[in-house]
Amino acid sequence: MPRGFYLLIAGQAISSLADNALLIVAIALLQERASPLWWAPLLKFAFTLSYVVLAPMIGPLADAMPKARLMTAMNGVKLSGVALLMAGIHPLAAFAVVGFGAAAYAPAKYGLVTEMVGPHRLVAANGWIEVSVVCAALLGTVLGGLLVADVLRGSPASLAMRDWLASEADSSLQLSMAVLLAAYGVAALMNAGVPDSGARYAPPARLHLLVLIREFRGANRTLWSDRDGGLSLAVTSIFWGVGATLQFAVLKWATELLGLTLERAAYLQVAVAAGVIAGAGLAGRHVALGRAKRVLPAGVLLGLSMPLVACADALWPAVLLLAFVGAVGGILVVPLNALLQHRGYKLLSAGRSIAVQGFNENLNVLVMLAGYAALIAMDVPIVPLMWILGVLVAGAIALVIWRENDVERRLGPSADSQFTTLR
């Protein structure tokens, strides 16, 4: 891999680790304030909102300046969100600030990877990204569990910091949030050390909001109308929407059916992360870019696995099933994500294609989280809810497979599918 690639991976992993740990800390903060249960998924909703609302702007922004510099600045924005949380601002508002930093960070991160490596290394590079992201989710979940543990919250250091920061934010989680401040600071320093790829793009003719929205709408239409781009965008959007919803569903399922605390339920998600790492590693090594669509049946299997998880009533069978779900998800998303980036880079530009991808994937996240929060507010039991989610996913991916097979019978293989040696 090119010089600076692994530093980029490490920096974004630490930033993502802090994002995942912050979610657990914020959920604990809501519990500390006796907020309703359905507010928890709204944290992710607030975090994701910027990906959708700012999508027309963040692509041109990522292409307008060296991407490593933008990543450094956006870690500073995330840091300020945690500082506001420590000062007593509502967790939903603080998460919206952190989400803004993450939204502008994403096209810079993926766009820089696309600029740094060629198509023959793009699947392998995406394997590195997804493994690092899932490792960050794994370690971030573990870190979040540690940060909300009673041992830390009641420690002398935590009590001293609580007294030192005497304000309206009277919380036992001040030390936990200070740890996350440090994590974002380290990530910013690492991003600052990533070398510039040298890629430059022509600026928009006019930096007017309506012009940017019009250009973004055209880019969105271009990617959806492309045969391979539209297919991979549909599947990755489903995957990330399901993943965000499943994160909260597993927490609720583990606390209600397995009787675990939030701390231990957070650790249970490590099984999913470990499975995704294994699946992403296998896909990165053994699936060529031209064969990416052959992993589509894994999406049907992913959906059908969720009801099995919901029916588990003991810890270790649940751990094994969650690891299996993660592995299937990793096998599915890495090749199709690489195919989507490849088509987006050819049709648009690195930053713009990732912004379109982020818009669609996160719009699906918002829709699914809003639906999940509404069902929780209506007291729908978690087991039927997970059954509904799994059947919908399996059906949606089966429909995508049927449509692709029909198109292939009429038009033959797509252009990129013929290059089976591309990795």
From TrEMBL:
This is Lysophospholipid transporter LplT. Keywords: Cell membrane, Membrane, Transmembrane, Transmembrane helix, Transport. InterPro entries: MFS, MFS_trans_sf. It comes from the Bacteria. It is found in: Cell membrane. The keyword Transmembrane applies. PANTHER family: MACROLIDE-EFFLUX PROTEIN, MAJOR FACILITATOR SUPERFAMILY (MFS) PROFILE DOMAIN-CONTAINING PROTEIN. The chain crosses the membrane at residues 6-30, 42-62, 82-106, 127-152, 231-254, 266-283, 295-315, 321-340, 361-378, 384-402. The keyword ATP-binding does not apply. It is a multi-pass membrane protein. NCBIfam families: PRK11195.1 (NF008397). Its main location: membrane. Pfam families: MFS_1. The lineage of its organism: Bacteria, Pseudomonadati, Pseudomonadota, Betaproteobacteria, Burkholderiales.
